[in-house]
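ESCALATION

Customer reports they have been waiting on this structure for their group meeting. Please prioritize. Original submission:
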Amino acid sequence: MAKASTMQKKRWALMVLLLLSISTVGVILVRSIFESCSFGGQFVEKKNGGDNSALKFQSNPLAFMNSKLVLLVSHELSLSGGPLLLMELAFLLREVGAEVVWITNQKPLEEDEVVYSLEHKMLDRGVQVISAKGQKAVDIALEADLIVLNTAVAGKWLDAVLKENVVKVLPKILWWIHEMRGHYFNPDLVKHLPFVAGAMIDSHATAEYWKNRTQARLGIKMPKTYVVHLGNSKDLMEVAEDSVAKRVLREHIRESLGVRNEDLLFGIINSVSRGKGQDLFLRAFHESLEIIREKKLQVPTMHAVVVGSDMSRQTKFETELRNFVLEKKLENFIHFVNKTLTVAPYIAAIDVLVQNSQARGECFGRITIEAMAFKLPVLGTAAGGTMEIVVNETTGLLHSAGKEGVIPLAKNIVKLAMQVELRLTMGNNGYERVKEMFLEHHMSHRIASVLKEVLQHAKARALR
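Update from on-call: job pushed to the front of the queue and completed.
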């Protein structure tokens, strides 16, 4: 009977996993149920949908994008936040009948499994995927009602492909910026930025940084800038609010990691790199264990999981992380998981999310609002967009970035480890904050207002 029960749990887990395909920033790319479909830029009602389907379509804040031709230009196609956010926008536009064309400016020379998978997800949803170079790309750029450049690096595509046509398309470009690092302030990347219709940035902290840095370093002025906080998709929220699905995913992932249900699991879910602070988190986790041992505190057995590994891209840094784990003899308590689109199971499995991005912090931090949807408290750096999401002492605890933040983070880990009621209260508060501010319909309304202004700007310039 026990064996049969275990097999049934695994079948449940596999069924739920098949329905989920969520990015490291939480974008659900595969949906099991579609209330409507759009083909060739036209809205098609379900046969049994009747007037309700049409009404739902018309009430969508992005409905005015129906039949518009939109060109999306991404610097790369990967499991990182920027490209996956642009893909989410592509799907939102397709749902209202927009014709959407995708260009990836930098693609690997050899066939890449991730690129192949993501391109086919887009093709399955009616997004056209074309080459970044060639006359077709130029023709679509000239014909498009709207062009979205995703990240500062995508600026390379303008001069390289459009050449003398750049000036013609600038009035209809919306530049969506996610970066917070100084090396992106390069004239070769952003020299056209002052002349586009607008810039869309994920947090007020990042927008202020770009305004100051472009003026001080490049002597250029930002275009009209819109701050658009992101939101969780309906699919993510459905999983987060389904207690059965969460329990199945939690049990499945914990079993795979060797973590018991009664153990306490802290998770950091980001592409592994020094800027995301996995090294400082592991040091803080080790320090928290030392505090617990020295003070003889009674807490559950603690584990940490690092989701987002990729040894092929961060070999030196990842080796450093693993050597630290071996040196401190923590290999039974610290677990590494490769990059994956399917992060929802790991959010369901952990008890606390750690958002430890360094320097100026996260531009926004999509994984933060996803964890809050799952009623998890967040331990985050007091920097960047995290401070616009996490309310300190209410939905989580903040600590400073850098090495000086290691001990405060360690103490916060211990604090949450000792106080289960505090974890639950902060988790519930975070969930309520998500419901109030960070849902898909909030984001759709915010993006819709930006797109309307950009289209009006393009139309006005075209009449001159």
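Sent to customer with the following note: The chain has 19 helices and 15 strands.
Escalation resolved.
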